[in-house]
């Protein structure tokens, strides 16, 4: 905030002008839009001074004002310029009367008035000009009436050292003028081009002024100035040097300009143009012009401290190169310490564009391989959701174009889902799994597919299923686009409406005190009484909104008894203090309690998904096959949200949704299931125990019975994934285990080998490739949760791999690579594991990989470091 | 009212209408029509003539197509000179369009450099830019820039994007406020009649007494024969930049800032006064 305003005036289009009370500068409230009527920030309007190196003479008051207006005003300015030059001669500065030379300040009444053509501008300038008499230039002469009056009044008063009375004087005068002027300042002239002029003046006696001093204003009226709320204004910075002549409308008439040599050059250039171009305009151009595709204003999350959202201008440019290839570049123009700067991104380097959940802004993140490594994308925010989607759609289309990606994803595609429920798909190249030189997974390009899901599973024959947050099962129709991606980038006939329902949670927190027992009044240091899970943000029933405008409430707030830790009969759970573990019963040591409230919200979007009723699912798996397999019937297993294990019958490539469910008997509820390339079915029950299903085959799709498999010591598993032969599982503490000892005659294996910690989910593909969602991964700025990682060094002799390669994240929830059966070219198998260790990630644990020793690498773990709230959050 | 910014634009958007004709001895399957094109003065022949190449390749057999080269009235045109310079030097007072002959055979090894790809042009262009900055700023400005800025200069030139080019180039046109100009002015003076390709010498924009040096001062010092008047007082030469003759009183500092080619050099042609 600037401080205090002496006066404020609201003009056309709700734009607000003010005069600061301390510095008496004219301010414009930037960022006033219909959705944000209070605007964002006050910006002082800056004018160049005579003494600046810049070419703009400040004396030509109305002319120099033209420098600072954006292009849409420019053509009207010429009118003003002409009329003024009619009435004025070359003027420099207005001389101060010697009597008043020692008046340190000259407060000038300023009106930012609506302008009128013809002689009126001169009068308007009269309103503005401080015209002390004698050497008053002609420019002020039409104004001489008021000017001289002003001057006269001025000379009457004794030369005052104190600036304030003098200002009062001016104010008086101005008010009188104002009385005369109302018709000009308030009513727009219909035939008058809408424009504004900011009257400036300079005083010849520069010694009395500091370099940064500006005229002191007393009154401003914006009634005639129409500013489009989204236009970018150039009034707030000084231009200088060549910059000025390059960027601004420079209309200076200083002596150097009129030099003969300059005139000669201008003249000859125009003659040349006539000579060389006039008769030949019908000739073809040698170079095709590039095309401005889209410009606009957005906000950018600054990359340096203090981090904040800054207004930027954004431009997307496309070139058609000489070889017909189209290159697109995104430019982001910003100001840094009053200096214009920009960053630019070649769109063919962009790996993903993803919407980011942010309370206040409609924001999205733009990643390149470099930014993926640093976990620090370019974050941009738009004023409205529509604008953000427009940009995302356009940028996505341009990225796909520059990579020649179009049409639906292939059967080999890798699917992933963010914490926000957005679906992304990536086309793997053969180098992705081709040992030894794997393509780094931060170079993978992801494009968005419409829909809102919690997980997706696929196989290499194009069968893809998804499960929503509301446990609805969806089958992929083979389309692409959807969501906000419309038009050419979206397939036409296989996009359908898709909806999902999820819960938003808030917590009611209470602290016990001896007087009233548990109450909503806590300690001063306590968290909000109504808060989010962390307690850091206040979330009340009233102010909690659905995640984005696309969501709408479909239920009211209700007490959620399903919170982990259990609750008592009223839904409360107790703990000794707030950030602690909660339990459902009250003990003597529990001084705080909390209750979780839930509310359902629904999103309606569209995407290439068709619902598969009627059973609601929790997990799903599809048999991964090599490219060669041409099975007619495709095995598909699922776990319902009630924990039943099911088997889908009748799934073929022509009918990916299958025909019916077959119930597979269990004696307890399950939570995860996975089927391998040879029909090995592994499943995890809700109590954390693991089972192997025997004798599953195409003839006997449901197998015969469950074999209990001991879990890793003291661990409860929560998810399992089976590839071609590899079986990997994740436990509830984030450890990743590999099932050792599997042979064709003994498919259950013998023991669990620890591979890594810090894992949330694993996906094993048809080449036994291992991909995970890791929990906390080091970025250059901080930890980010939910990151896609690829296990490197996986070979037949080394199925657990050696180390990790880091891909896109944080904010990722799920990934499946079970469609990628692209056979890698035969790799040199005699690469030693020492070589692998040398190439492994620098964040690896100390243990090395000797030949006989399976290395246990861990992903980064620095529990002490706070999760950066700036990262893409779940 | 024109101003300095307009000069920059006029320089950038200057075009020369050209007629390309295939050399009659080239083997063609059918009659080759001449091809008309507007060439940018500030660019390089091999950068902007893809259309020409495609046009003539259509009437030739694949095996006859080797490296393209251009010639005007018998003189092979050096592709590494900017097009505007070539025109001013060889054809400035002739009738338009400029008639260039296209060759595919008998590449004149002694006169021309080979241009196998656009990368060669880029390398040559960037080398000139760096050399110019070495003269102007002891290479400080160009070295401070990132690789992507260099790339942007090249792409701006290649794709005819004035704003994109000048967004970076303006930094090369600045100088510290305590000086009144560059350290030395990057310039080259070309004359058809001399043996050596061009004259390039160290020349300061500001004289010892603080006065700005003019174009006349520059010529007097490095190429006096160009400006000595004939016995009868008539000028015998034209001093041409970008197709115009600036007055000799023009300050070289201003010329360097506003009328350099994209490679940041002032390419000046000295041509004999037309006789008509």
Automatic annotation (TrEMBL), chain A:
Residues 150-165, 828-845 have a biased composition (Basic and acidic residues). PANTHER family: DYSFERLIN-RELATED, TECTONIN BETA-PROPELLER REPEAT-CONTAINING PROTEIN 1. GO terms for cellular component: autophagosome membrane; cytoplasmic vesicle; lysosomal membrane; nucleoplasm. It comes from the Eukaryota. It comes from Pelodiscus sinensis (Chinese softshell turtle). One of its GO terms (biological process) is autophagosome maturation. Belongs to the TECPR1 family. It is found in: Cytoplasmic vesicle, Autophagosome membrane; Lysosome membrane. This is Tectonin beta-propeller repeat-containing protein 1.
UniProtKB/TrEMBL annotation, chain B:
GO terms for molecular function: Atg8-family ligase activity. Pfam families: ATG5_HBR, ATG5_UblA, ATG5_UblB. InterPro entries: Atg5 (IPR007239), ATG5_HBR (IPR048940), Atg5_HR (IPR042526), ATG5_UblA (IPR048939), Atg5_UblA_dom_sf (IPR042527), ATG5_UblB (IPR048318). One of its GO terms (cellular component) is glutamatergic synapse. GO terms for biological process: aggrephagy; antigen processing and presentation of endogenous antigen; autophagosome assembly; autophagy of mitochondrion; axonal transport; blood vessel remodeling; cardiac muscle cell apoptotic process; cellular response to nitrogen starvation. It is a peripheral membrane protein. Residues 184-270 form the Autophagy protein ATG5 UblB domain. Keywords: Acetylation, Apoptosis, Autophagy, Cytoplasm, Immunity, Isopeptide bond, Membrane, Ubl conjugation. Residues 119-174 form the Autophagy protein ATG5 alpha-helical bundle region domain. Residues 11-104 form the Autophagy protein ATG5 UblA domain. It is found in: Cytoplasm; Preautophagosomal structure membrane. Conjugated with ATG12. PANTHER family: AUTOPHAGY PROTEIN 5 (PTHR13040:SF2). Belongs to the ATG5 family. May play an important role in the apoptotic process, possibly within the modified cytoskeleton. Its expression is a relatively late event in the apoptotic process, occurring downstream of caspase activity. Plays a crucial role in IFN-gamma-induced autophagic cell death by interacting with FADD. This is Autophagy protein 5. It comes from Pelodiscus sinensis. The lineage of its organism: Eukaryota, Metazoa, Chordata, Craniata, Vertebrata. The gene is ATG5.
